[in-house]
Amino acid sequence: MKKSYLYNFGLLIVLMALLVSACGSIGAPKEADKVTVQLSWFHGVEYAGFYTAVDKGYYAEENIEVTLVAGGPETNPLDEVANGNAQFGIGQGDSLIVAKTEGRDFVAVATIFRDNPLAITSLEQDNILKPEDLVGKTVGAYSLDLSGYSDLLFLAFMSRTGLEKDSMQYALIEDFYGANEIKSGRMDAMSGMFATDQQVMTRDAGDEINLMYYKDYGVDVYINTIFVTGEFMQNNPDLIERFISATMKGYQYAIENTDEAAELALTYDEALDLAYQENVMKAQIPFIDTGSGPIGSMDENVWNITQEILLEFDLISAPIDLSTVYTNQFVLP
Amino acid sequence: MNQISSSQNTIRRQDRLDGKRLRTLSLRNRLLLAFILLAIFPVLITGTVAGFISGRGLTTEAFNRLEAVSSLKENEIKTLLNVLQTSLDLVIDDQRTQQELNSVLQDNNAESQSKQDIRNEMAGFNEKTGYFTEIFLMDLDGKIVVSTDIVQEGKIQLNQDFFKQGLLGSYISPPAYEVGLSNYSIVMTQPVKNSSGKTIGVLAGRVNLSALSEIMQVQGGLGDTGETYLVSANFAALTSLRHEELSLGETYIRSEGVTVAIREKTFGTATYQNYTDTTVIGVYRWIPELQVALVAESHQAEALRTSTTVFQTTLGLIIVTVLAAVILAFIITQGITSPITALVEVADKISHGNLTLQVENTQQDEIGVLGQAFNAMTERLRNLIGTLEQRVTDRTRALTTSIEVSRRLSTILDQEHLISQVVEQVKDAFDYYHVHIYLYDGQTQELVMAGGTGDAGKAMMARGHKIQKGRGLVGRAAETEQAVFVPDTSSEEGWLPNPLLPETKSEIAVPIVLGNETLGVLDVQQNTVGGLKHEDVDLLQSIAYQVAIALKNAQTFAESRKQAEREALIGEINRKIQSTTTVEHALQTAVKELGIAFGAKDSRVMIERPSLITPEIQDGRRK
Fold first, then answer.
1. Distance from A153 to chain B by nearest Cα, in Å?
2. What is the dihedral of CA A89, A90, A91, A96, to 10 degrees?
């Protein structure tokens, strides 16, 4: 008898507590989390998912207030995130590994492009289809001796395809627009070109190009991961999950509505060309949504490849635990 | 009248306040509405139910058909996959190829005869079957060593699931977009083992998607709008669509069917909006072997075409019925309400005092009866009011007459003149056929005719017409001292016809009574049956009473005059007697004068002498 009375009393307390907490959550809406995102480059459809998530209210649904800050050649997203000017940054996978070895703790929580879009481009008529076809040709590069960081993946491509550095000549790419450098005869192919916009530009200029993707030859590095500091991740796992969920929803919408995505990009930079932005948006769909696995998610193999390349070219001295550099835990399947 | 109509107005207003909106509609409109609703409801209900039932049946049928089609296509896909798997086995079936594979995989860099042979072998196979767009061989590093597409050789597939899974066993990769090929591809892989059973590479076939497309394109059982298509797990359409241009890698489909199939990896049926926002009946199933959704859809409009026809027919029927109902209802309602309206109008006019109106009525139904009743009512009202006026007029005239008669009678003291005046005036005033008065002679117990109108009256007077008390109408009246009224003489027993008054058809005999004395009878005759009424009886009684008084006056006057004359005579005789000088002369004068006064033939005076026993008779005879 006494026991049942106590039980009932306990039940009452629990119910009241539930009621109070329910009232609390209803009565006082939590203030929105304010978040700044440091983009890796100038505004453009590459960041369409963010634009869409803002515009469609996906962030608002998650009670997040997002500020998007454009990047540029002078801005290093890693620094911006490290010093707290931004909570989220867009950066390359390899730079995160390098930073880790330098003692700077960044973690990639998602990636925009799930495949590396870098490729060696050549005019279709030149028939450069396989790595061997490059032998004896002049290849455009970011530095003549290929010592620049931007030429790193080209070197990795050579080593994986068995191309000898000496079997080709090199020329410095000065005009990045389309295939102008090739048409002018300065070079036969250009290395390290973005398949997404390069393709659109050359087509717009009336040329068809062949693309030899690095990723097809085992050189796959994430070029635009969304990262946070390890500390931020430790303290705000819920916020990150909500942010990533909203952002990916934004990307999903953007790839399914490329016209709207392009228009939204223009609201961030009215100097952009609408048709070009839409074409680029279309071109990057297969990199965002490869069809295998959820968008935003990362593959351990890609991180392995990245680390191997860094080790191979002595950019890091020893392998690190890759699980400290990236996580898929926030990307909902 | 005014009061009645205002109270009716009050009632009407009350009705309006109490009643609903419907009540404010006129009778005709209400009937019209009722007719139309009665006409529409059955058609509407029947049509809706029929449409609904046929719609449900058709939907079920459409679902069944789509289910059958999609099931068939799923089986076709599975069969195709089996065939592909088997055929991939056949590529490295023979001994020689097996050996060459071993050597190529061991030393994969250099172009060799073996490589060429394998390439040819694979290309030959591919040409024959057309199952694959590319067949290629990967070494343990994921590098493509030999491929039917030379360009692909040297590419590293280390990251690809089809390589990793292919090392372990037979595998089919779900469709993934291949940027290098600008296409989705499904890759089928299986390990290549050496003679000792060790895995030395992976053999892969890139499935020719057109084979899948072909399966999807077969339109059998899909009708005009039906289609089947495959959607990859990332919601991208894989095979061409019937109602929209497919842009491979860019066309995403997120209809309900696709979403449920992909999210829940399940089979189901539903009605939803498809990729063109058209409502479709859809059957969706998940094909786990390929990790794709197979969707079979058909436009709902097409499936429901028959039931739409039913609905359209119903609609047409409703329109026709409504039109017919309106016309019929109009005619019938007009037939019912116009007489009522006419009645109402007539009633309204009657209420304003016009009683001469008649309802024109040709109908045989209740309204006709109502109209007749209405007419009867107005007629009776009219008659009532008419006779009432007549009676008032008559009564007034009778009263005036009776007053006039009384006034005149009061001045007439001569009985004979009085009676002749009474009969003449009564006859003239009321336009009777004949009027006469009898006076009662108490000694003879007879009623003696004292005056009558016209020639008949004179003739009867001349012959001294008499009636025994108690005999005939007049006698009865005198005896009973009550008025005797015979509205129709022919049906009255004991009525005595008078040959001088042949036209008499009705008669009233009123006793002339004063106190307990019956003075006579006033008899009135009329030459029409029912020409005399009770009103006449009352009237005549009042006149008879006046006559009684007048008669009594006249009799009294006559008697007092007689008295005066007698006294004057006595006075004259006395004077003459006094003027005589002798007794004898006085006596003679007395005798003579008394004889004259009494009118006697012979008069004498006898003187009694005291000495004489016998008186002497004086000769008093007139000579």
1. 15
2. 40
Q: Is A9's pLDDT higher than 70?
A: no
On whether residue A24 sits in a domain, the answer given is no
Distance, in Å, from the CA atom of B273 to the CA atom of B122, rounded to the nearest integer, reads 45
Torsion of CA A177, A179, A180, A184, to 10 degrees: 160
How far from chain centre, in Å, is Cα B305?
41
Element (H, E) at B176: strand B176-178
In chain A, residues with a C-beta closer than 8 Å to the C-beta of B109 are: 162
pLDDT at B305 over 90: no
Domain that residue A162 falls in: 118-217
Contact (CB<8Å) A255/B180 = no
- CB under 8 Å to A226, separation ≥6 — which residues? A88, A89, A90, A108, A109, A110, A111, A112, A244, A247, A296
Measure the CA–CA gap between B44 and B39, rounded to whole angstroms.
Answer: 9
Residue with tokens 């798997």: B85
Query: What is the tally of structural domains in chain A?
Result: 2
Structure tokens at A100: 């880790």
Q: What is the pTM of this model?
A: 0.63
d(CA B132, CA B614): 204
* Claim to verify: residue A99 and residue A133 sit in the same structural domain: no
Strand-pairing partners, residue B134, are B206
Domains of chain B in sequence order: 60-302 (3.30.450.20), 413-561 (3.30.450.40), 580-617 (no CATH)
Q: What's the pLDDT band for A23 if we cut at 50, 70, 90?
A: very low
Please provide residue B267's backbone torsions phi and psi, each rounded to the nearest 5 degrees: -100, 145
For residue A210, being part of any structural domain is answered with yes
Strand, helix or coil at A248? Answer: helix
Q: Choosing among A115, A121, A193, A216, which should be mutated to test the B contact, i.e. which has the most B CBs within 10 A? A: A216
